[in-house]
Amino acid sequence: MNKSLPLERTTYRYTPADKIPAEYHQLILPGAGAFFRQDQECDILSQHLTLGPYSVWLHDIFSKQLIQLRSYTPTPIFNIQFMFEDSLPLPKAGYTLDERECNGFYLFPGQPQRAPMIADKKIFSFQINIQPMQMAALINKYPQFQELMHGIHPRVSSRINPRPYHINAVCDMLIRKFMTCRYHDSVAQYYLQRCVSDILINFTAQHTDSQQPFLFASMLHTDTCHNIFNYLADHPHKTHSLPSLAYMYSIDQAEMEQSFRQHFAISINEYMHMIKMMMIWHTLQTPTFPLTDISRVTGYKSTDELINDVVTYYGVNPTDLS
Fold this sequence. Notes:
The protein is built from eleven helices and 13 strands. The strands form three sheets. Strands 2, 3, 4, 6, 9, 11, 12 and 13 form an eight-stranded antiparallel sheet that branches. It has a three-stranded mixed sheet with strand order 1-5-10, with no helix packed on it. A two-stranded antiparallel sheet has the order 7-8. It has 322 residues and is an alpha+beta fold.
């Protein structure tokens, strides 16, 4: 049986909360609009958030019988998909949306995709949509997004990346932080919008680096890179120099930098800055911590310097949102 799955909509008539079974309420993010449908063949919960130039969709699909998903868009979109929990074949297109892989598409109306889904299967898809008219402003802010435009014909649906990319630890962390965010209103809007930007920056970096060979040295340093990644995540307030990190983990600095970039599509300095900004944002939402203490612990010379960094990163002074 065919089941329509709109990847974007032009009108949003969300399903009232009392029409959604209670067991699904825990999945719904604060501030998200939800569309829910249930019948003898499947349950489909689609959540939607508009975050600045981004239209973010989270699709939870439970099949009870064999179904045929028919995904489509009523308007042209750039669509970045992250698949979790299981895979979804697209026979007509000749490829599969595999679990823990991400793909980018330019999608044009009237060119739907069909995907069979066997009985007793569950998939979760995290998707970021961008209207073409929004891309110019985004490219002005993030010039690397120009890479997503190469080879795109405005009236033909096509893949952005010829082969899928792995959902690396950075994207996985950012999506988990997105999914577990319990902020409301403007605090959530600015925080989640930056999360989405960082996800797209990482996807674009994978796309840009996709033609580079994965070096044998990077393979040898896999465990070390993951140890550094986790150590920095556990100590976001600390500022480390690259020589000190290389000394801590007994690795050549140049090999460490290159291997980290190849594993995570982000430099060590960029990663340290990202997790520090997130930690500061979270801490600023807790009034028990004075701004002077946050500045001192995170290595800033003054509160003004800290606030300037946060404003540059998130686009707003968080103290104005209190």
